[in-house]
Design goal:
Methylamine Dehydrogenase, Chain H; four-stranded antiparallel beta sheet; 35 strands; 6 helices; Herpes Virus-1; alpha+beta; elongated
C-alpha cells in the first residue's frame, strides 16, 4: 500500500473530453493552489506515461527522505490502480465508513471523504479531479460494491476460446483412450494367435525330424561299414552283420536341454532345460517314450539356478535326484511332479548320486572339492561331510557296490580335474581317499562307471604345462583340429574293496572347454562297450573294452554332445545321446 506522504504530481487525464471552462481553470498557477491548501493528487497512469516518454522519468516527492519503494515492491501500473484505489489519496476505498466508494456524474470513482474535501476546497469552481467536468457535492453518489474492476473484453473472449479448445481436446482424448483400449485388445488376440502358431510350428518341426529319420534309416542299415575321417572301421564279423549293436529309433526336439536320464520301467525321460528368452528360466521336462510322446515342464525350487547333474533312482524310478548351482540337493517325485526334499548345501553342487546299496542315502559333490552324504530319513543335517584333497569342483560322483567292502561301509568314486578318488563313508575309520593311478594324462574331464562289471573309463585333456608329456597305447585316429583337442581315455578295473588296475589307454578327440559325458555298457553277448563323443567328427563312437576297438560310429545330427546315458530295458537296452536341441535314442529293437 503506498504511503500517503509519497505522491506524484498529477495533471488532468488527456483521454477525457473537457468542457469550455477547462481552459480558464487550467490557467491557475501552482502557487495559488498551494495557498488554497489543495490536496495533492496522484497523476493518472496515462498522463504519467506520457510525461515519462517526454522527460525520461516522473518526479517523485517523498517526506522524511524515504527510499521511494512502494510497500509491494512492484512498479505502478494501470492494473494496480484501476478498480482498487482512490485516485486522490491512492488508498483503497471501503464499502462502509468515511472512505466509502462513490462516483460523480462523469463516471469517475473516488473515496467519499476525498472527493468531498476536494470539492469543498475548490469553492465555486467545483470540478472532477479526473476530467475537470463541473460537479457539486449533491452529484456524489455512493456505490454499494466491494470492489470495482473493469472487465477486459478481449481476455474474456480468449478465455472462452481456450475453454472451447479444452472441451474439444477432452473429447479427442476420450476417443484416443477408447482406440487405445481397442488396440490393446487386438494386441492380446494377436499374441494368442502367435502362441498357437508357435506351437504348431514346433509340432511341424518334430514331425519333419521324424520323417527325415524315416528317410534316413534305410541307408543307415544297408550294411556299409561306417567311416571316420577317411579311416575305415575294421570288419565286425557276422555277429553284428556290419551294422553294430545299435540303430536309431527316435529323435526328440528339446530346445535348451543339457542333461537327461531315462527310466526304462516307466518309459519316461527327465531332462534339464533352459527356456528361451531374456533371462531364461531353468526347468525340468518330463517326456513320455510312448506315443504321442507327451511332455510336461516342472518348475525348480526357488533359488535352485542351473542343474549340474541329475539321476533317476535305480531302485525306485519314481524318485529323481538333482544337484544345482543354487546350493541345493533336491529329490523329485515323478508321480506327483513335485519336489519332496530339498537340502541346503554349503557350496554349489556339481554332481550327485544315489546309493546303490539302499534307497535312503544320497551323495553330492561340491564346487569347493568337498563331498556330502545325506540320509533321506534324517532331514536336519548331513550324515557325513568330508573335505576334498583339492578345491577343484567334483564334476562326477558314483556310488560303489559294497559287496567287496567291509560290513557297514559305503564308498563312492569321485572325479575332479585333479584326478579320481575313492571315499569311504559310514563305519570306516579311514577318511583318507584312495587315489586311482592313471599316469600323467592331464586334467580329468569325465568319468564313466558300470556297476555290474566294475569297469571305469576316465577321460582326460592336456594341461597347459604338460601337453607334450601324454602317453598313449594307440595312435590318434584323426588330426586334433577344430573344437577338439588331443586327449585320452583310460580304462580301469576295480578288484576288491580298494584295488584298481589300469588296463589300457587310448587317444581321443575331446572338447577343449566343456566337461563331456560318456557311458560304459555291459551288454549280454556283446561284452563291455564304451560310448563317447568325438568332437572332431561329430559322431558317437562305440568301442569294445578293454581293447578300445571301434565297432560302430553313430552319426549325430547336431553338435556339440552334452550327455550320454544307457539303460537296460525289456528290449535289450536303450542308448541316448543329447546334442544341441536334439535327443537321439538308439536301441536293439523299436520303441513301443
Amino acid at each position: 500500500m503506498p504511503n500517503p506522504s509519497d505522491y506524484i504530481a498529477l495533471g488532468s487525464e488527456s483521454e477525457e473530453e473537457t468542457e469550455p471552462e477547462l481552459e480558464e481553470d487550467s490557467e491557475e498557477t501552482e502557487e495559488e493552489q498551494e495557498q488554497e491548501g489543495f490536496i495533492p493528487l496522484m497523476e493518472s497512469p496515462g498522463v504519467l506515461a506520457e510525461k515519462e516518454s517526454k522527460n525520461g522519468e516522473a518526479t517523485v516527492c517523498s517526506n522524511a527522505g524515504e527510499s521511494g519503494e512502494n510497500s509491494q515492491g512492484n512498479e505502478w501500473n494501470r492494473g494496480d490502480i484501476d478498480g482498487l484505489f482512490c485516485p486522490i489519496c491512492m488508498e483503497a476505498w471501503t464499502t462502509t465508513g468515511d472512505h466509502h466508494v462513490c462516483c460523480l456524474p462523469c463516471g469517475h470513482i473516488f473515496g467519499f471523504s476525498c472527493i468531498r474535501k476536494w470539492l469543498q476546497q475548490r469553492g465555486t469552481t467545483k470540478r472532477c479531479p479526473q476530467c475537470n467536468r463541473k460537479s457539486t457535492l449533491k452529484d456524489v453518489r455512493k456505490l454499494f460494491a466491494s470492489r470495482v474492476v473493469a472487465i477486459d473484453g478481449e481476455s474474456q473472449k480468449r478465455i472462452q476460446s481456450l475453454e472451447a479448445k479444452c472441451i474439444s481436446l477432452d473429447k479427442k482424448n476420450a476417443v484416443l483412450i477408447k482406440k487405445e483400449a481397442e488396440w490393446k485388445k487386438e494386441e492380446a488376440e494377436w499374441k494368442k494367435r502367435e502362441a498357437l502358431l508357435q506351437r504348431e510350428l514346433h509340432q511341424l518341426k518334430e514331425k519333419t525330424i521324424y520323417l527325415e529319420h524315416l528317410l534316413d534309416v534305410k541307408p543307415r542299415t544297408l550294411g556299409h561299414p561306417p567311416s571316420m575321417g577317411g579311416y575305415c572301421v575294421p570288419s565286425l564279423g557276422s555277429e553284428f552283420n556290419g551294422q553294430g549293436p545299435f540303430i536309431l529309433q527316435k529323435e526328440l526336439g528339446v530346445d535348451g536341454a543339457r542333461l537327461f536320464d531315462i527310466d526304462a520301467s516307466s518309459k519316461i525321460i527327465l531332462m534339464t532345460r533352459r527356456l528361451q528368452g531374456l533371462g531364461g528360466v531353468h526347468v525340468l521336462t518330463k517326456i513320455s517314450l510312448v506315443a504321442p510322446y507327451t511332455r510336461q515342464d516342472i518348475s525348480l525350487p526357488t533359488g535352485s539356478k542351473a542343474v549340474r547333474d541329475l539321476h533317476i533312482c535305480p531302485s525306485d524310478g519314481s524318485l529323481s535326484l538333482f544337484a544345482s548351482l543354487g546350493k541345493k540337493l533336491s529329490v523329485l517325485s515323478t508321480k506327483i511332479n513335485n519336489f519332496i526334499l530339498a537340502y541346503d548345501l554349503p557350496a554349489p553342487a556339481w554332481s550327485c548320486s544315489w546309493d546303490l546299496n539302499g534307497s535312503h542315502q544320497i551323495y553330492a559333490g561340491l564346487q569347493n572339492g568337498s563331498l556330502v552324504m545325506f540320509d533321506m530319513r534324517q532331514t536336519a543335517r548331513p550324515l557325513e561331510f568330508v573335505n576334498g584333497l583339492t578345491s577343484n569342483p567334483v564334476h562326477t560322483i558314483y556310488s560303489l557296490h559294497n559287496s567287496t567292502l567291509p560290513s557297514g561301509v559305503t564308498a563312492v568314486l569321485s572325479a575332479s580335474s585333479a584326478g579320481i578318488f575313492q571315499w569311504n563313508f559310514v563305519g570306516s575309520e579311514e577318511r583318507r581317499p584312495v587315489v586311482l593311478e592313471t599316469g600323467n594324462q592331464g586334467a580329468c574331464i569325465s568319468l564313466a562307471y558300470c556297476p555290474s562289471s566294475d569297469d571305469i573309463i576316465a577321460s582326460f585333456r592336456p594341461r597347459i604345462d604338460n601337453s607334450n608329456k601324454m602317453a598313449y597305447s594307440q595312435h590318434l585316429l584323426t588330426p586334433a583340429i577344430g573344437q577338439g583337442v588331443q586327449g585320452s581315455h583310460v580304462h580301469l578295473k576295480r578288484f576288491g574293496s580298494n584295488c584298481y588296475q589300469k588296463l589300457a589307454v587310448t587317444c581321443a578327440n575331446v572338447n577343449d572347454v566343456r566337461l563331456p559325458r560318456s557311458a560304459v555298457m555291459n551288454i549280454e553277448s556283446h561284452g563291455c562297450l564304451f560310448a563317447s563323443g568325438d568332437e572332431l567328427t561329430g559322431e558317437l563312437v562305440l568301442q569294445e573294452l578293454p581293447s578300445f576297438t571301434v565297432i560302430q560310429h553313430l552319426k549325430l545330427r547336431k553338435q556339440p554332445i552334452y550327455d550320454v546315458k544307457y539303460v537296460h530295458d525289456v528290449d535289450g537296452g536303450l542308448l541316448g545321446c543329447l546334442c544341441d536341441d536334439i535327443l537321439q535314442l538308439y536301441g536293439n529293437h523299436a520303441l513301443k
